[in-house]
Amino acid sequence: MILLALQVYPHLTGFVHIQANPFDSYNTVKTVAGARRLVSLFQEVDSSFDPTRVCIKIAGTWEGLQACRELEATHNIRTLATTLFTIEQAALAAEVGCRYIAPYVNDLRVHFDKSYTDPSPNLALCVASQRYFLAHSYSTQVLPASLTSAAECMKLAGVQHITIAPALLRELAATQTGAKSPAAQAHSLFDDPSIAHAPVPPKLSYLNDEAGYRIAFTRSNKGKEEVKLTYAINTFCDMQTALEKAMKTVLSAAV
């Protein structure tokens, strides 16, 4: 992944994003150590690489967000809080100083189970988080992920950043203004008065309140968002295991 990132790096104006080991999602110490190791590997492979251009994607657990806090404040390493499903996660991510959050618009399951559709996509959370950050003078920015249609992308027009899969980019490029397609007919939620002009919640503070954060997160949407987080971490752990197995096979063949 480091070698691939270094190939992409010259074509970027912003950060190179790389994900932390998902098996460390509930371990602050290991997440910090792993993030620092990733940054050092960039420099080992390419001594001219600017380490401040790395942004580490870290699971939005309590432990993961505390790791972000240490990485940002102590080690000058930029972080992105990923697998984010609630305003409580967003609020804590801003408190710890994350550069970005990645709200998952859809449950990650939609990308692996073709028969499944998320009954409650988190489009509004993206708008609410951005408005919350701006209202309370946080520098954290919103970078939604896990979108499944061009129409969803259009509904988030106005968000600071966005992750769009290649197939959706092609669909957006082919969308004609005034066409009857869902993407062409979609309206940005940032222009929806019921969402864009809704009262912004008062500043939430969980920085030194682990118990308060955990119960607030657990109770968000009656626990459904916590289930999504658990599924996402499990899925990324499965992918990590598969990747390590594949790499061992490649390295064994090369000996």
UniProtKB/TrEMBL annotation:
<comment type="function">
    <text>Catalyzes the rate-limiting step of the non-oxidative phase in the pentose phosphate pathway. Catalyzes the reversible conversion of sedheptulose-7-phosphate and D-glyceraldehyde 3-phosphate into erythrose-4-phosphate and beta-D-fructose 6-phosphate.</text>
</comment>
<keyword id="KW-0808">Transferase</keyword>
<dbReference type="InterPro" id="IPR001585">
    <property type="entry name" value="TAL/FSA"/>
</dbReference>
<dbReference type="GO" id="GO:0009052">
    <property type="term" value="P:pentose-phosphate shunt, non-oxidative branch"/>
</dbReference>
<dbReference type="InterPro" id="IPR013785">
    <property type="entry name" value="Aldolase_TIM"/>
</dbReference>
<dbReference type="GO" id="GO:0005975">
    <property type="term" value="P:carbohydrate metabolic process"/>
</dbReference>
<dbReference type="Pfam" id="PF00923">
    <property type="entry name" value="TAL_FSA"/>
</dbReference>
<keyword id="KW-0704">Schiff base</keyword>
<dbReference type="GO" id="GO:0004801">
    <property type="term" value="F:transaldolase activity"/>
</dbReference>
<comment type="pathway">
    <text>Carbohydrate degradation; pentose phosphate pathway; D-glyceraldehyde 3-phosphate and beta-D-fructose 6-phosphate from D-ribose 5-phosphate and D-xylulose 5-phosphate (non-oxidative stage): step 2/3.</text>
</comment>
<keyword id="KW-0570">Pentose shunt</keyword>
<dbReference type="InterPro" id="IPR018225">
    <property type="entry name" value="Transaldolase_AS"/>
</dbReference>
<protein>
    <recommendedName>
        <fullName>Transaldolase</fullName>
        <ecNumber>2.2.1.2</ecNumber>
    </recommendedName>
</protein>
